[in-house]
Design goal:
There is one protein chain. The chain contains 4 helices and 6 strands. The chain is α+β, with helices and mostly antiparallel strands. It folds into 2 domains: about 60 residues, no CATH class; about 60 residues, no CATH class. It has a 3-stranded antiparallel sheet. A 3-stranded antiparallel sheet has the order 4-5-6, with no helix packed on it. The protein starts with a strand and ends in a 6-residue tail after the last strand. The structure holds zinc ion (ZN). Zinc ion binds next to loops.
Length: about 130
Amino acid sequence: MKIIAAYPTIEQAYLAAARLGSAGIRADIRDEAIATLNWLYSSAIGGVKLAVGEADVADAEEILREPAQEEGILVCPHCGSRDVTVRTLSAAGGVLIVLNIPLPLAFQTADCRGCGKSHGISAHPNLE
Ligand SMILES: [Zn+2]
């Protein structure tokens, strides 16, 4: 794992991790316990750090360079379009598209209107 970013608050670190997670990149949050203890310590150690696997560094840095998205707005990982709609897949609906991802309880998929591709969004990106 390599640390690619640091944030002054845990919330920002989690938001960044979620953005990476929605693009299929697993991110670890470091120094969270210390930051929880005291935000002053967090400043002293350089913030809450975000780490990703070596193979994901370039992709993750590119994603994080994008301006922060408003909540609920997603970027297509295939073409970068923001014209993405989200739908929740339910067993009752009978339409389950599994993208090599174990199906979590709340599973959503995003449909890109730019390129027509879909990608899954896990509500628990750090669980495998
Ligand atoms: Zn797309």
